[in-house]
Amino acid sequence: MPSSQEHYLVITALGVDRPGIVNAITRHVSSCGCNIEDSRLAMLGKEFTFIMLLSGSWNAINLIESTLPLKGAEMDLLIVMKRTESQARLPMPSTVWVKVDVADSPHIIERFTDLFDSHQMNIAELVSKTQSAEGDKPPQLYIQITAHSPAMLDGSIIESAFHQLCTELHAQGSISVVNYPQHEEKRRRVVMNTLKAGDIAPKFSLPDQDGEQVNLTDFQGQKVLVYFYPKAMTPGCTVQACGLRDNMDDLKKYGVEVLGISTDKPEKLSLFTEKELLNFTLLSDENHEVAGGFGVWGEKTFMGKTYDGIHRISFLIDEDGKVEKVFDDFKTSNHHDIVLNYLKGI
């Protein structure tokens, strides 16, 4: 069948496990003339979940869309379907596999997924299972993760970070890093053109930690400190945010409002605000368009790894919407002092 005539459908079937249920589903898929391109099956308690990517002609996909819900009702299954498109796999020069055994407790999986996120890696597969407590031994959590990186990795960096996390969590873990040099592509360097004092600040509208839209024009007639930071809930960014929090009264004396901008989602910003009791607004610039407009999105190097990200730069915007001062030489621990000293004329 010509690829131009192929259509694709993702199906999820959820229900109580019993013998023959998977065979019944796959038989129905075949009878409709569809092909199973990819599939995953998982047992969760007494429930099973079967996820499939199907391909077929328009008639075949249309047939299964119209008949599978009825078949699912007969088998007491919840069926969810969504049309999709074929997508060529992007080159992923590096792949990492990890396995972890650790005493089960809240947020354990999050700690490991955050590890990969902080290294700009895409998680392709995550499997976890909890083993019940036995005697004096607490419940054990088993985790297996496969992640890909669109850039060539220095394996020693992710390995060191992984083992450090395992040590912190008293976990037993193994990690394997494989690089595929033939897939490495030349990076397109992003040239930063950072705003200077006297430039007009780009107008923007971004969601805050509560999902509400905030516009720079909302602060017309006021001074605004717009500070860009790489990632919420990381050590350096937490120190910087808490410094501003603790000195908010002094900043208010000089009529300064504070807006923190990162590429984090609003949900994470909400957690960050709640955890650190932050008393100012955080904004989500997921597509880094505002960061690009201010000229703070560009090439960075950290522990031998080169990637594009937000540079830690702050801008004091005056009452007329112009950049009054650019702060680009500070430590996270003294950022608030540098800003206040400028406001005080020191």
Automatic annotation (TrEMBL):
Designated name of the protein: thioredoxin-dependent peroxiredoxin
Presence of the UniProt keyword Oxidoreductase in the record: yes
Enzyme Commission identifier(s): 1.11.1.24
Thioredoxin domain: residues covered: 195-346
Family statement: Belongs to the peroxiredoxin family. BCP/PrxQ subfamily.
GO molecular function, one term: thioredoxin-dependent peroxiredoxin activity
InterPro entries the record matches: ACT-like_dom_sf, AhpC/TSA, Thioredoxin-like_sf, Thioredoxin_domain, UPF0237/GcvR_regulator
Enzyme class: oxidoreductase
Function: Thiol-specific peroxidase that catalyzes the reduction of hydrogen peroxide and organic hydroperoxides to water and alcohols, respectively. Plays a role in cell protection against oxidative stress by detoxifying peroxides and as sensor of hydrogen peroxide-mediated signaling events.
Pfam family, one: ACT_6
Subunit comment: Monomer.
Gene3D superfamilies cross-referenced by the UniProt entry: 3.30.70.260, Glutaredoxin (3.40.30.10)
Catalytic activity: a hydroperoxide + [thioredoxin]-dithiol = an alcohol + [thioredoxin]-disulfide + H2O
Alphabetized UniProt keyword annotations: Antioxidant, Disulfide bond, Oxidoreductase, Peroxidase, Redox-active center
